[in-house]
Specification:
Blueprint lengths: L2 E6 L1 H5 L3 H10 L3 E8 L3 H7 L9 H8 L4 E7 L3 H9 L12 H5 L8 E3 L3 H11 L8
Antiparallel strand pairs: 1-3, 1-4, 2-3
The structure holds uridine-5'-diphosphate and magnesium ion.
Uridine-5'-diphosphate (UDP) binds next to loops.
């Protein structure tokens, strides 16, 4: 069964929106099969954001992502990777349509409520990065 990794970012936690965001994923038919609250250290953020580590916004992004504990979770279901990205909306919250998670709750292109894996390859790598096999109740 397909799985994806999500991170409820510091803005989501600070706004007490974890339940509201998880509710959207669960109402879409996806199952929560792993979850933990953790504060992401710089080395883990550098690995997770390796694809953008050379971009000028990376230091500010790493500061933001490490600023408070986040909720890291795995969702499971048919088509979950693409569907969760669709429910999030585009990266820039200001361009995200009303009705999407980022459109409804996000702030801007950086502070945007939730991360989600963008392909089967990244989902597999990201799940393995944050969870031991016996922590995923698939
Ligand atoms: N980001 C940013 N400025 C940008 C683009 C991205 O701060 O111009 C941040 C934002 O938090 C985004 C994350 O970097 O969610 C990862 O970027 P990516 O392009 O992978 O976007 P996503 O997959 O999260 O939509
Ligand atoms: Mg991405």
């Amino acid at each position: 069964m397909e799985k994806t990794l999500i991170i409820l970012k510091p803005d989501c936690m600070e706004k007490r929106l974890a339940g509201a965001v998880l509710d959207r994923f669960q109402k879409a038919g996806f199952d929560l099969v792993a979850a933990k609250l953790t504060r992401l250290p710089p080395a883990l953020l550098a690995e997770h954001y390796a694809h953008i580590a050379d971009r000028p916004f990376f230091p500010a992004l790493a500061d933001f992502m490490g600023s408070r504990p986040v909720l890291v979770a795995v969702l499971q279901g048919t088509g979950v990777i693409a569907k969760v990205r669709e429910l999030l909306g585009p990266t820039d919250s200001k361009k995200a349509p009303v009705g999407t998670i980022r459109g409804d709750f996000g702030t801007d292109v950086s502070v945007n409520i939730c991360h989600a894996s963008d392909s089967p390859e990244s989902a597999a790598a990201e799940i393995a990065r944050f969870f031991a096999p016996d922590e995923v109740f698939a």
